[in-house]
Amino acid sequence: MDIILPSPGESVTEAEIAQWHKKDGEFVEKDEVVLEVETDKAALEIVADCSGILKIHQEEGAVVEVGTLLATITPGSAQEDSSPALDSSAKAVVTEAPAVEASGEFKDFESPAVGVLAKSNGIDVKDVNGTGKDGRVTKSDIQDYLAKQSKSAPVVAPKVEEPIESVFSEVDMRTEEPKKIPRIRRKIAQRLKEVQNTAAILTTFNEVDMTEIMALRSRYKDEFKEKHGVGLGFMSLFSKACVEALKQFPDVNAEWRGEELVYRNYADVGIAVGTDKGLVVPVVKNAQSMSLASIEKEIRRLALKARDGKLSVDDMTGGTFTITNGGVFGSMLSTPILNAPQTAILGMHNIVKRPMVVDNEIKIRPVMYLALSYDHRVIDGSEAVSFLVSIKNSIEDPARLLLEL
Question: What residues contact residue 162 under an 8 Å CB cut-off, 6+ apart?
Answer without folding.
Answer: none
